[in-house]
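Design request, tokens follow.
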């Protein structure tokens, strides 16, 4: 009987595993963990590269020795070769070398761990709150609350104070730093700094329920002037549609009415409503030019995506805590126009 099928599935499983692990190293991928773009990620890279090199050399020596012995001493009917079991000198040497190596590697490793657990005094602060399945960002000193896209000034150290509203999550922006847990009832800390302006992708790094894979993050690093301008506009109340404007605005105005009727129990729009403990993302400046993604940074902020989202959130994000609100096509059109009008840079 042939064992072809099980062998094939074993091969498939092995290669799938290998491809999956290698995919984390693909060059130019937005989640490339081997392409540091900030000081914290670089420090980790500069530690892991030599450690990897040393481990590789040891692997080559051990494997080389094994392969040599297997070939050189294979059974050809010859007498048993000389045995070295119990050789005190050899045993001391091959115990001492690993001890010295590990002790040597421990110094930079522990140093790096300590370096990465303390923010400097002049670091900027952002509070990160994990929710199933999106990241909320609060800027305590600026009085800003936003979601999914974290805007930071390039070249400045940002100190993240992180926690979770529900289950354990994990904030991971591979190009800027390693990952760290967000634990309910506890505060964890992560340093974030980007050398250059740009978009850095992130992903929740801890399985946190049905839509864990769709719990993503964006960090947008911008020049200091652009950052200051962003802060200034984020501190304003929402840029609401006004009465007596052209037809597009009429649609948005009707959407504002819908929002007040249906959505304001879960979402806050500064200038429209207040909630003690909103369960959905703050939508005040939902259409800010920097806030280009929504629903856990899993969707681009286009009219089509928004309409699909509003029609039935749990089909887009399984388990989503935004329910299907049975909106009509007209209501959806109005709400999309309204949401897309929440742009603080737009002239009113
Ligand atoms: C029962 C509470 C609840 C109600 C009511 C509700 N939402 Fe939501 N909404 C949520 C939650 C929770 C999320 C986060 C979902 C996720 O990303 O997993 C969300 C996400 C969103 C998002 C994406 C925001 C972002 O930046 O990611 C938009 C847009 C949105 N809701 C619009 C609306 C509109 C418009 C209404 C009214 C028609 C509404 N919601 C009603 C709970 C609610
Ligand atoms: Cu998560």
């Amino acid at each position: 009987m042939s064992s072809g099928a099980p062998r094939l599935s074993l091969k498939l499983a092995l290669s799938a595993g290998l491809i999956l692990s290698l995919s984390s190293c693909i060059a130019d991928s937005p989640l490339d963990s081997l392409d540091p773009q900030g000081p914290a990620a670089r420090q980790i890279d500069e530690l892991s590269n030599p450690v990897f090199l040393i481990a590789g050399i040891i692997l080559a020596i051990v494997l080389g020795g094994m392969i040599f012995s297997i070939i050189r001493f294979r059974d050809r009917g010859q007498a048993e070769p000389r045995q070295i079991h119990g050789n005190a000198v050899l045993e001391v040497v091959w115990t001492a070398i690993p001890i010295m190596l590990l002790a040597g590697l421990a110094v930079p490793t522990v140093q790096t761990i300590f370096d990465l657990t303390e923010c400097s005094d002049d670091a900027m602060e952002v509070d990160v709150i994990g929710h199933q399945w999106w990241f909320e960002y609060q800027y305590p000193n600026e009085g800003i609350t936003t979601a999914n896209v974290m805007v930071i000034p390039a070249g400045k150290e940002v100190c993240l104070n992180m926690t979770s509203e529900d289950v354990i999550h994990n904030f991971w922006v591979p190009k800027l730093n390693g990952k760290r847990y967000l634990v309910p009832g506890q505060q964890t800390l992560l340093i974030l700094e980007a050398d250059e302006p740009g978009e850095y992708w992130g992903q929740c790094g801890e399985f946190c329920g049905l839509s864990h894979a769709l719990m993503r993050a964006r960090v947008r690093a911008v020049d200091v002037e652009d950052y200051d301008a962003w802060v200034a506009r984020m501190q304003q109340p929402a840029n609401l549609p006004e009465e007596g404007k052209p037809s597009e605005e009429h649609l948005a105005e009707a959407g504002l009415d819908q929002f007040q009727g249906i959505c304001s129990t879960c979402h806050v729009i500064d200038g429209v409503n207040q909630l003690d403990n909103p369960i959905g993302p703050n939508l005040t400046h939902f259409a800010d030019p920097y806030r280009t993604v929504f629903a856990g940074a899993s969707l681009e902020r286009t009219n089509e995506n928004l309409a699909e989202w509003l029609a039935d959130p749990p089909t887009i994000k399984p388990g989503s805590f935004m329910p299907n609100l049975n909106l009509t096509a007209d209501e959806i059109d109005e709400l999309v126009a309204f949401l897309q009008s929440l742009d603080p840079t737009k002239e009113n």
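Comment from the thread starter after seeing the answer: thanks! The two ends are 77 Å apart (CA to CA).
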